[in-house]
Amino acid sequence: MKLVFHGGAKEVGKSCIELVSQDKRFILDAGLKFKENGFEAPFQVFDLKHVDGLFLSHAHLDHTGALPLFEHYNMLCPIFTTGQTRDLTAILLKDSYKIARIRHLHPAYQKFDLGKVYSAMRIVDFDKYYKHENIEFKFLNAGHIPGSAMILFRIEGKKVLYSGDYKVRSTDLMQGVETIMQNPAISQELKDIDVLITESTYGGKIMPERNSIEEDFLSKIDNILKNGSVLVPVFALGRAQEMLLVMSKKKWPVPIAFDGLSITITKKILGNDPTYLNKRRLLSDMFYHNADLVKKEKKRFKVMSSKSIIIATSGMLQGGPVLAYLQNMWGNANDAIYMTGFQCKRTNGRILLDEGYIYLDGWKTYVKCHVEKFDFSGHSDDSELKEFIKFVSPKNLIINHGDESSVLALKDWAEKNTTAKVYAPSVGDQLDI
To answer: Is the pTM of this model over 0.70?
Structure first.
């Protein structure tokens, strides 16, 4: 068995791992990595028409964005994923293609390739074994976003667990991986693992306790609303829905505007009644009865003209209606921008946090309003990563999906505190197991 790392190794973005067994080739995720002037894709994957199957952990574009590109180059295999991930991926890929055209970025595929992706997808249920070619596989709850899964493979007499992105602790939105760790019937599957491929986004970083983050976040919003408005940039899938649930914990004197692709995403999540979702009824009530859904530019201008809490995409300030609100707010010292998610290097959001400015219509703009980041992450922090690794106790541990510092911090710990043989591959590396 051989593993080839085409992306997501010592980096966050363009996740893509090739699993080779005998004469069969399988792909684990196919993502993009977004940059200031475009994107990177796992272009190193050759001879796509001879790939025998692709397994998709969840819908975020750093795990799915290259699927249309692969289809364009005649990947002729089934794509296995959960029903929720299939539907959410279709929405995100369509939006990504539209944005690329607006920004005059050639996506390297055609519009009809989006349909080919959807047609190739095969829905699997959680917690059930399936057989394909020379492998058996099972999707397990990953607790990251609706539809997200870890994938357990039985191959060549070995058990390989690909974590995808995962969250051990439960959140307002999702039941965490702790729910399957505490379930004897399912947790037994996580024993005697020969190879664990784990993400490490927050390796070496301990996040504050979730309740204290929420209390601080809500208190500071309350304070800003005395004189100004609060802009909360969010990822359309996962963070947007969680923010609605967090906002339900207080009575607000101003409207909660909800703007961007998150409207379409939330409708799809609620319409599918997904497995492992927390507080579905409360989310539905907040979305349909308490949020002020902004669907037209005229409504957006109305929101800007009065004090509001604004939840808008995109989460890294790279596009979407959040930029329109920023154009209106950047010079007002009474307003606040409260970031709620991971900010990749060289994105507008990361530049704002590190340097205090953003690019608006190409202009370098120093922001005068309050700026702060709150760690509402759908990823496991360092303590959760270590807890899960120790729980699984794999013979071989492969650490990926993290900046190099995060990967190496977790590797150093694992070499000292586990019996596993530990690997920290770079893009292009191959491992023989």
So the answer is: yes
